[in-house]
Amino acid sequence: MPSQPPLSQERNNFLGFIKSLLGVIRILQILFGAGLWVTIAANRYEGSIHFVLFVAVLFWLLTLLLFFITLLNKQDLVPILGADRWLPSNFAHDVAAAVLYMPAIGVMIYKTERNSYCNLELYKHLCLYKVYLTATVFACLTALVYLISAIYVGCRKCRREELVA
User: Fold this and answer.
1) Cα 101 to Cα 144: distance, rounded to the nearest angstrom
2) How far, CA to CA in Å, does 160 sit from each of 38, 84, 111, 121, 155?
């Protein structure tokens, strides 16, 4: 049987990663993270919400980077963190994201509760309650997906697997 041309092989690698559990998890992290920071950035925010926005944008960008490097199978080109250290690097990224999303969730819950007074039909002024509630849901979903990813990648590392996908 003749071997597949390189372009077809690369396409199979793309589809293989996107259809893998880690590929789906990375896509969910990107979507939920974008939902969080877009929800916050599209509205007025102040104070401790800056921390939430920082965490959301930082890990959204890092996750995009990890996703595309893994999708293109270019882990070997990443200095220090690539090649045989790619799986532990992904694990460290996911654990750091899950840990930093926890205080971000706390901030969002606090801000949501502080604005719950304006959730009345007759209230006529700017009310950020629904915005903060939506952002809290996105933050919780994002943290959950990072936690699932950390557990999955950690289990793969414990089984001495080397490849991410």
Assistant:
1) 9
2) 38, 11, 43, 57, 9
C-alpha distances out from residue 135 to 38, 52, 88, Å: 9, 9, 30
Judging by beta carbons within 10 Å of its beta carbon (0-12, 13-18, 19+), is residue 105 exposed, middle or buried? Answer: buried
- How does pLDDT run across 70-115, given as a tens digit for each residue? 888 787 777 777 677 888 889 999 999 999 999 999 999 999 998 8
Compute the distance between CA of residue 65 and CA of residue 74 in angstroms, rounded to an integer.
11
Angle in degrees, CA 148, 78, 59, rounded to 5:
40
Reported as type and span, the H/E element at residue 53 is helix 49-71
Joined tokens for residue 14: 């793309």
Q: What is the pLDDT of residues 143-161, one digit of tens each?
A: 999 999 999 999 988 887 7
pLDDT at 117 over 90: no
Q: What does the chain come to in residues? A: 165
Cα 157 from Cα 88, distance rounded (Å): 7
What's this model's pTM, rounded to 2 decimal places? Answer: 0.86
